[in-house]
Design brief:
By secondary structure, the protein is mainly alpha-helical. It has 23 helices and two strands. The longest helix has 20 residues, at 2-21. The radius of gyration is 28 Å and the shape is globular. It starts with a helix and ends with a helix.
Length: 465
């Protein structure tokens, strides 16, 4: 009898442990049921290891070859392949700018997402991972490496100071000298430089040199025209930017979108610099750093932007194109061009960097002070040199949101309250392209364990008796 009771207890304990542990997580998901984001190269490897995913992916690539989306979706086999792949790691994968296999990663990304778009979309989602760093990080590093902030002395030529700082760094000096030499080298009497080689050298410079050096060259603040002209000449525009004639902007965009790298950088620029009137700074996520990084990422491609003049009173950025000859597409062309020439997010970001300031997300009219109950323990604040990669927002927002949640209606409504979201809203609203998969069985497992645990003392008593 005792052995029988002991055997029953072992079975119940085993059931408890299984309930608490839950089912094993499938590949591509963590134990909590969330799909782990991976880069597209890794996602492709995971797909290749699964026969059903691998065969569907090959089918989709064959479907996309030489066909438009409507023709592809008319084929039931192609449509079925696309539906299966939307549940695979390939759908959520992203790439890192400057990663070792960036081009391969982007090719994999677009092989899936070109089949999901309704023809030519005006704005395309960025294939790159979201940026979490901020301008304040760049300022801190710039002061460490150069011994001075980007805007220390108002009387100095900041663009000249930026060049001197670059020359003190071997990597920056070598790659900057390299692109200047390449972009200034005359090929023949009719061709004064090789634009293709010039663009390649510029891409290497902006991809391999830290932004604390490149930003100072691109976005230095100027008080006189000589400084502003030096800033405009940073990318050797006579070779990398200007041409005999200005092409139509929509034609230039179409040319850019035929190249996976250029298409990705343009999509990234629109994602991070598209004017947002729901934010304090007109930038998505109030992140100047993300916009400036996307702008720098366009340099060295057909869509290379630059300052249109050496003005010290206003900042006007534009690619080398116009809207002449747009026909009935002129409105769309003007809209595309205004994203560069009249972009408040881009303009504010450039001015903020030149001034050595980052966005301050604290409200202009702070709420009345609230008496907080004493806390027995307080989490230490993150040191300045640690970046929380799990959030796109400044820590001041988190503090405010915590305060709002604790005191509810006691606080007056302010701009910061609009930045407070529930966990569900953050999952579904901020990154709509990011699918999440939550294990609905996890709650049931905990309830089962809660019902079983009270029975253990009874069984132990039976064993003793």
């Amino acid at each position: 009898m005792i052995l029988a009771n002991a055997f029953c207890i072992v079975l119940f304990v085993d059931e408890i442990l299984r309930s608490l542990a839950g089912p094993p997580s499938p590949p591509g998901q963590d134990p909590h049921g969330w799909r782990v984001p991976v880069d597209c190269v890794r996602a492709n490897e995971l797909c290749a290891a699964e026969p059903s995913c691998s065969s569907r992916y090959r089918t989709l690539r064959q479907c996309l070859a030489g066909r438009d989306r409507n023709t592809m979706l008319a084929n039931k086999e192609c449509q079925a392949a696309l539906e299966v792949l939307q549940e695979s790691p390939l759908y959520d994968c992203r790439c890192k700018r400057g990663m070792k296999k960036e081009l391969q990663c982007l090719q994999i990304y677009w092989s899936i997402h070109l089949g999901l778009t309704e023809g030519e979309e005006f704005y395309e989602a960025s294939p790159y991972e979201p940026v979490t760093s901020r301008l304040s990080d760049i300022f801190r590093l710039a002061s460490i490496f150069s011994g001075m902030d980007p805007a220390t002395n108002s009387k100095s030529n900041h663009c000249l100071d930026a060049a001197k700082a670059c020359n003190l760094n071997d990597n920056c000096k070598r790659l900057r000298s390299g692109y200047i030499s390449t972009c200034s080298k005359e090929i023949s009497a009719t061709e004064h430089c090789s634009r293709r080689k010039c663009h390649k050298a510029l891409r290497q410079f902006f991809d391999r040199v830290p932004s604390e050096y490149t930003y100072r060259l691109l976005f230095c603040s100027c008080k006189d025209q000589a400084c502003a002209e030096r800033r405009r000449q940073t990318i050797v525009p006579s070779c990398s930017y200007e041409d005999k004639e200005k092409p139509n902007c929509l034609d230039l965009r179409n040319t850019c979108r035929t190249d996976h790298l250029c298409r990705s950088r343009l999509a990234d620029f629109h994602t991070n610099c598209q004017a947002s009137f729901q934010s304090l700074t007109s930038c998505p996520g109030d992140n100047y750093q993300a916009c400036l990084g996307s702008y720098a990422g366009l340099i060295g491609f057909d869509m290379t932007p630059n300052y249109v003049d050496a003005s010290t009173t206003s900042i006007t950025i534009s690619p080398w194109c116009s809207c002449k000859g747009s026909g009935n597409m002129e409105e769309e062309c003007e809209k595309f061009l205004r994203d560069f020439t009249e972009n408040p997010c881009l303009r504010n970001a450039i001015q903020a960097f030149g001034n050595g300031t980052d966005v301050n997300l604290s409200p202009k009219n702070p709420s009345p002070p609230v008496t907080l109950p004493p806390k027995t323990d307080k989490s230490p604040a993150l040191p300045d040199d640690i970046n929380d990669s799990n959030t796109m927002y400044d820590t001041s927002i988190i503090t405010t949101c915590t305060s709002v949640q604790e005191h509810g209606s006691k606080l007056n409504k302010s701009k910061e309250q609009s930045l407070c979201y529930s966990e569900t809203q953050l999952t579904t609203d901020i990154m709509p392209d990011q699918k999440t998969f939550v294990d609905q069985k996890a709650g049931g497992s905990r309830h089962r364990a809660g019902r079983i645990l009270p029975l253990v003392p009874i069984l132990l008593l039976m064993l003793v008796l």
